[in-house]
Amino acid sequence: VAAANGIPVTKAVNFYENDWTAEQEDIITVAEGYDYPLIVKPVSLGSSIGVAIANDREELIDAVETAFRFDAHLLIEEAVNPLMEINCSVMGTPDDCRPSVCEKPLGQSETLSFEDKYQSGGEGDKGMASADRIIPADISGELTKKIQRLATKTFSALDASGLARLDFLVNANTEEVYFNEINTIPGSFSFYLWEKSDLRFDALLEELVDIGLKQHQAKNGRVRSYDTNLLSEKALKGIKGLKGTKN
Ligand SMILES: Nc1ncnc2c1ncn2[C@@H]1O[C@H](COP(=O)(O)OP(=O)(O)O)[C@@H](O)[C@H]1O
Ligand SMILES: [Mg+2]
User: Which region holds residue 92: left if phi is over 0, alpha if psi is between -120 and 50, else beta?
Assistant: First the structure.
């Protein structure tokens, strides 16, 4: 969907476990058409579970087999390198939405793993909320605007509404930006981003409820049923071959 809407995404091939069994060589050939390092990820999981970096063919096959333990549908992507991650939350409806400030999560130099995200600390660990991050991201105003524009454009293209956090991968050298993923509620309220965008939590909730109500009304305003006497006797008589109707 993103690619069809002109939103930049990394080069990627996706396939199912059956494909891998039947045409492993072909999949590897496509993937190796991109440059190593390659990123292997389960399509439907989150929190970096099963995500791995492969620097050569052996690691690639290894990563794929590991990822299949988590999901039968995988992605192999060209890695963005050197990587800078920037996230931006968006709130509203597809045709009326606005971005929050951007954040720069400070990941490890290697892929931020599930262990890093959720299992690093002991007591009092708040998962992502406690991970290191810079808000607003220490990037140029120009790059910030570019990412915010891309964030709202992607939000609309995906027909999202309410609130979501969109994650981007930025090549730290060239500042090329790629859309990586969207995290919807309940995965993320992104409140920490709206707080720094001068929106209080109660105001955020109010606005979300408002958006929900408006969307609901808009939906109810549409014709979703069509009144007809399809089952009236007259209509039934007209249906040829209908069994059980007299006459
Ligand atoms: N194409 C890529 N290039 C470099 N790093 C990547 C790439 N894709 C993902 N990563 C790294 O892996 C992490 C997890 O990937 P992501 O697609 O966000 O999966 P999840 O849904 O599990 O969060 C990202 O936060 C990023 O650090
Ligand atoms: Mg992620």
Answer: left
